[in-house]
């Protein structure tokens, strides 16, 4: 097997045995990147000189006998809304096209300390707004399983990068499903942690009460490895939870006999592809054979999640993006004749269509006379949704649903119908509203395209989710499939 087809734990074992060096792994990845990146277009920028130097440093430390993290020397990609000191962080927007942060995000500090090797910054929907990565300022990213299809969004670049073998793992951000939906469409494991489990310090905000950083990996064990590195308290993020981080690998290879799995019937309704539902039902049967106790439940407030989400997220977006005015940092229109014109022209030229649409929606929802009718009401609905989950986890260890409404769709198929595009997040936004963790993993294929199922846990129960996911992974082989991009 080639290095770019292997997982982080497999490559780490080879390096520990001194059968391969980090420099060889990183060099082979860049050879592969040169072959497939023109087709996939997952990267906004590449950091080859940094990666080569970093790999040499890791190899030298290993030769000296230093005990290193399992992620040491492993190629990784980073979504371009996570701050990287000295390297552009564009949010795939004209507004930040030339922005070079003076500091690293908390997760970058943690991964750098673990010895991760960054190979590039990854494409996304502008400011993380979208479900297909068609809203990037620079170019759309293609799905490695079918280049005519989208990889999902907004973390389409991080998902496509790992699925194409350009990095072993990547980090994305998830505001309404932006890790899990592209993980589903690209055949990967993607985890949105509990709100507060991973510090958002250094993540350029979209909707602060919903955003979380999480990993894309090829299998569940890699997901546990990355979570061990990035989770934990950070005093620089006021929403960071001071809760002890377990050793997530201890949850792997465990029996799920007797585990209680709830199946919320509201997630299997209108708008879902029949083939997707059938594959998720087969996954449920697999869990039953493994000894889990599966039972249907009702979560009645689920139907209000999508409209409430599309009030809260744009409202917070309109507030967060007010800082981009051409004065403090970012793009500035240089032709304006006065300050007012400079403000308006800068924002008109610097933001793309989807971002401007959400800013206007959010500003309206927060405006005088409408706040109580829209934003306050949406927050009240959010509380009811959270109570749905609290009640469910009194009885069940995990909940199981589809991740997306179907397989990856073709470019342009939903861009003229915003409601249809927003509907594609219907299985994931509820989880962000409740702040609980959820993981997407492959459970089958339709016409050669991956399908994902979603495992949802109680707050800070990422270990329980990983336990269930790993048991399913050991019983199936969907996670071993790779797209073949070397065939014309």
Task: Sum up the overall morphology in one term.
Answer: globular
What's the order of the H and E elements? HHEHEHEHEHEEHEHEHHHHEHHEEH
- Report the structural category: alpha/beta
Number of helices: 15
C-alpha-based Rg, rounded? 21 Å
**How far apart, in Å, are the first and last alpha carbons?**
21 Å
Name the average pLDDT: 96
Strand content bin = 5-15%
- Major sheet: size, sense and barrel closure? 11 strands, mixed
Characterise this structure.
- The mean pLDDT is 96.
- A hairpin with a 2-residue loop joins strand 10 and strand 11.
- Helix content is 38%, strand content 13%.
- The chain is an alpha/beta fold and 488 residues long.
- Strands 1-3-2-4-6-5-10-11-9-7-8 form an 11-stranded mixed beta sheet, sandwiched between helices.
- The two termini are 21 Å apart.
- It has helices spanning 8-16, 22-40, 48-63, 106-114, 156-163, 180-186, 220-230, 274-289, 305-320, 339-350, 353-366, 372-392, 418-423, 429-434, 462-475; strands spanning 43-46, 75-79, 117-122, 169-174, 189-192, 212-217, 260-264, 293-297, 398-402, 438-446, 449-457.
- Helix 2 (22-40) packs antiparallel against helix 3 (48-63), helix 7 runs antiparallel to helix 15 (462-475) and helix 9 (305-320) crosses helix 11 (353-366).
- The chain is built from 15 helices and 11 strands.
- It is globular, with a radius of gyration of 21 Å.
